[in-house]
Structure formats: C-alpha cells, structure tokens
Write a structure and sequence with these properties.
The protein is mainly α and 552 residues long. The protein contains 31 helices and no strands.
Length: 552
Amino acid sequence: MKRFAALLSLALMLMVLPAASQDRVAEGMVLLNQGKADEAAALFQKAVDLNPRNTAAMNALAKAQLQAGKPALAEATAKNALLVDDKNAETWLMLAKAQMSQGHTADAYSTLRKAMKPTKNNPELLVQLGWLHLAADSTSQAEIAFSQAKQHLPKNPDIYRGLGEAYLKLGAEPVALMQFEESLKYDSIQVDLRAKMADLYLKDRRYNEAAQMYRSVLNHDPENDKAALEVSRIYMLSKQYKNATSYLEKYVLRHPEDQTSWSTYMEALDKSRQYESALNAADHLLKANPNDPLALRLAGKGNYMLKQWQPAIDAYTKLAAVDTLGYEDAKRLGKSYYALKNDSLALRYMEESLSKNPAQEDLYNDMGASYMRTKQWEKAAEMFQNRIKVDSTYATAYVNYALCKMAVKEWEPARSALRTAVQLRPNYVYGHLYLARTLSQVDSLKAARNSYETMASMADSMKSNYKNELGEAYRYITFTHLVDKNYGPAFSSVTRAVEFRSDDIELQLWRAQILHALDRRDEAKAQYEKVLRMDPKNADAKKGLDILQLYN
C-alpha cells in the first residue's frame, strides 16, 4: 500500500511540474511583450528548471536573452533545446538569429542549411535565410529564399520587406517600393519601413507620396524628428507653407537650440501670413542673436503687416545697421513712417526703394501724397502721372495730379485731367467741384457754372456732408447769373447759398441787390437792413437803401 502511495505521489508531481512550467512561460511572455527582457528571462529559466524538456520555455528564454543583448547565452540555450527536439523550426530560428547577432554569418548559414531537412523547408527559416543572404550581399539567393517562403506564407510582411530590400540592392527601386507597400498591407505599423519608403519617394521626386509617407510615420511616431524635418522641407519646396508650419511647430518646441529649423519655421509662418506667430519665432531667434538679419527682416515685415508701425520702424532700423535694406524693406520702412505722417523720412526710404526697383506702382500714391503734404507739387504730380501710366482708368490719380497742377496755377493740364476724372467717376462730387474751380480760373464761366450745378445736384441729398462745398457752388452760380443779369435764377441760387453761408456779408448784399433788381422793394429794404446789422459801415447796403428811399 505504501509503495502504491509513493508511486501515486510521483505521478502527481510529474503532472504538476509541466503545468507550473507552462505558467512561468505565460507570465514571462507578458513581461517580454512589455520590454522587460531580463525579468522575463528569469521566469523562463525557472520554467526550464521545472521542466528541462520544455522546448517552448527554452525558445522563449533564448528570445528574451537576445532581446536583452546576450546573444551568446541565447545561442547556448537554443543548442540545448535542439538536443531535446531537433525538428522544432523555432529553435533553429532562434539559433540562427543568435549567431547572426554575434556576426557569425557562416555559422548562421550552416545552421539554416542544417535546419531545412528536419523542418521540411520551414517558410520562417527560409525568411531568415533570405535575410542572411542579404547581409552577405547574395541578393539573387535572397530573392529565391524569400520567393520560396512566400509560397507558404503569402501574408507574411517580413517576406515582402525582404524582397523589397533585395530589389533595392539590385537598383530596381520602383519594384522595391511595390514590395514594401505589400509589406505594409499586412503590417501597417512598420515605422522604420515607412521612413525608408518616404526617403525613396523623395529621392525619386515623388513629393506627394513622400509627404504622405512621412505623415504616416508621424502618426505612429509623433516625435520622429527626421520625418518632421523632411515633410516640412517637402512642403516648403512645394510652397505649401501652412502645412510646413504645422509639422515644424512641434519639432522646434522640442529643439529650441536648432536655430536653422527655427529660421525655416519663421519663414513658413511669414509666407503663410501667420504674422503674429512669425513675430514670436523672430523674437526667439533674436534672443540668441540680436543681429540675425533674417529675424530682423521678418520682424519688420510682421509688424508692418499687423500695422504696428513703430515696432516695424525699430526692427528695420536695426536691420539697416547690420545688413543692406532690400527694396521691399525700404518700402515698408518708408510706408511705416508715412502711416505716422513723418513725410520726410517716409520719402527718404520710399525714394530709396523706388530707385532699387522702379516697377512699384503701389508707391506712387503714397509718395505723391507725401510730396503734396510737403508742398513739393512737381514731384507729387510726377508720381500721380506715373500712376496714370500704370492704370489709365484710376480716377483718383487724375484728381490728385490736377490738384498739384492747380497748386502751381497750371490750369490747362489740371482741367484736362479733371475732365478725364469725371468721365471715369461721374458720381464723384469732388471731381466736379475741382473741375469747376479750374474752369473758373480760365474764365470759362458758363462751363464752370455747369460743373458747379452738377456737383450741387449730386451733393444736395447729403447736405450735412458737403455744407462748405454747396455754399461755394451756389455762391459761384449766383455770381455767373449776376454777370448775365439773370436775376430770377440768381435769386434762387443766392437763397441756397446763404442757407450754407449765412455769415457771408457779400452773399447777403447780393440777395438784397437781386431783390432790388426784381423790384421787390420791401424785401430788398429788409435785406439791406440785415446787411447793415451785420456790417454797419457797408457802403453798398447804405446806397441801396438810399435809392429805395427815392421811390417813396
């Protein structure tokens, strides 16, 4: 009975030990998948100790040892496992990997050749053989091995990747890319393969595919610096500046010391019109190098575009101390001074800009206005004349040109320019007003009156905006009717005139004289008296009253 109990106890122990061994393997695989190779190896070793014939445990131990950077131990473990089962393909595979990891290519090749017979050309061993041939530059043999493996494992990503590497060594890059794409189909996570494919696309100038592949690398590995720099470089080359900034932004924040990439980032922000962010990037660069010409230039431009005139002036002034201002720099500096109404400095830099690049039509108006404000009428007229040459339909240039000519009493060119202006902009009130003034200077009384009447009819509906202009118009219209002794229309216009210029004594006198001429004596008398209340010494009003007394 005792003998039976002992035998039963031994049988139970033999059953428990393999189970315990398998539990250690399962626990170890969890650790290995977490990258804890040494801890996993300890558990696998316990599993082997519990069951020395557990080839799965020995293979797992070899794998953990390889992962922990101990290929010699892995090789010894795999050899021990082969003593237990020389037909286990995974064991042969681990042995070959361990030998390759130590650079023992000949041994690895011998191992794989030996493994083929007992494992009946296991496809996974063929894959490893393919990689071994590739490492030895036996490209054709590698292609054969991978192709044989593909017949048994058509969805194995490693096979297509190996074929791709083989074709790449043969210089068949398009075919290699096709194989790599097939590999990704079965294992889309291969970040390093995606990076390799992106490099190949870029080399082949297939920029869209390269950018797409680099983006996919970043989707899986957001902090992949090479991918971030390359995809942003592609976007810079293709002038997709906003896209470039989105990939450079995270990179430069990770690498504040990379001044070159910060400069590229700043340029991309500038070219995608993200001026506030570009200014922040410029500030970052200027902290490291206060005389950085590119940062100063873009700081000037960014402030200018944001209408921050004084900071723009400050940046461009610093730039001028360390580098030559380009024509656009000088223009923006000049226009910043112009916005602050510093005409002398505005003209200095705008003139400099124009001398460097005469084809800048946007300067003509501002320079013309500054010349006008500084009473340099001839230079102002020249600017507006240049603007007209660029666009003969730009009415404002004709008006400003005419004003310059009027200032130097050159009435004929002024009249001609204003005629064109009112044809181009018939509803422009001041165009008709200035034309009327010009015509009045060349004794074209009727033509001047017509222009004043046109201007008045347009402005009457907006009296509050044109009080002075309407007063001027009706005054002149009254004057021309008086010259023609046309008293009825003269009375209508003088009445309108005093509506806007009630304190104009001469207008009030004209109204009295027109009433007198129309024989409206009582009204004329009251109007003369009104004039005398405004100007007690007015001789014409006294004379008018004296004449009226003769009728009584």
